[in-house]
Design goal:
Layout lengths: L1 E7 L1 H5 L3 H10 L3 E8 L3 H7 L9 H8 L4 E8 L2 H9 L12 H5 L8 E3 L3 H11 L8
Antiparallel strand pairs: 1-3, 1-4, 2-3
Length: about 140
Amino acid sequence: MDQTLVLVKPDGVRRGLVGEIIRRFENRTLAIKALKILVPERERVEQHYSVHRGKPFFDSVVEFMVSGPVVAMVLEGENAIPIVRNMMGALKPAEAQTGTIRGDYTLSVQENIVHGSDSMESAEREISVWFGKEEILP
């Protein structure tokens, strides 16, 4: 079974979409193996987005992500990564299909409700940034 990290970003939490987002993933039979809500510290967010360090948007993404609570979860299931990515929808609002999370709820590239790992390698790295081994259900 594959595992992936999903973050409901501060805009999704602020807008009260956490339950709807979790419902969508559970309806696809993805299992929640870990879940927590926190206001992330800058160091954690910078570590999470380290692959983007030096890019023009890095600082604004970090500022946005530390601006309020985030719901972090580890989802597990067969093909979890591509399924979650498809359910999230395209990053650019104009390209996000209706029926996807971003297609239904976003108008901004930065405030785009959710993050999901884009590969097995990213998932392993990102899960370790947000969770310790003891926090993930077997």
